[in-house]
User: Fold this.
Amino acid sequence: MRARQGRAKRSAALFDVEAFLKSAAVPYRSVRFAQGTVAFTQGTPANSVFYIQRGTVKLSVLSSGGKEAVVAMLGSGDFFGEGCLAGQPLRMGTATAVMPTTALRVHKRDMSRTLHDQSEFSNRFIAHMLARNIRIEEDLIDQLFNSSEKRLARTLLLLARYADGDTTQFKMPKLSQATLAEMVGTTRSRVNFFMNKFRKLGFIEYNGGLKIHGSLLSIVLHD
Assistant:
């Protein structure tokens, strides 16, 4: 997992999306979202695609009964809102910044034209979509076969890839235990129990924010 994340970061560093959009004269807007700000809401018109430069965005879906489920946490180098390119007229979920976030916003008409005309950009976007599909498959397998403890450990490691740091320790975006519980598919009390366990084992630490150590991977790999 760490090797795959490293390759993704190197790939992102080699391709400057904003510089490409400027050079190709593609209209776009740079937008900033404060923590807790909604980029778009479920049920509103789907008319643009976003590319995250810095920060973290939570994608969630609200059921007809009012229950919210977190379906993805996205960070630097990720696109979101791309469903509009496949004819999605309305947003299927809500996108919320969970920390100060900067993103590029491109209208679906301009995005579609760029994907058609610019092979380099199209290849980058397709690679993103394939990686997203792999992540969805892994998340499904995780939910079906792994314990809530393993699912929490994996979630923390995946989230940690969005922060800068060395190969052994990563800073986490600020998330509540309730949000983590929604992502993992368990209760807040169970998340609290496992977080305390991870801290006592030295896998995580609280010091002006949550820090994840690479040793947490041992929980995921343990049978």
Notes: The CA atoms of residues 25 and 198 lie 49 Å apart. Confidence is low (pLDDT under 50) at residues 1-13, 162-167. Helices lie at 2-14, 17-23, 108-117, 119-145, 148-160, 177-184, 188-200, 217-221.
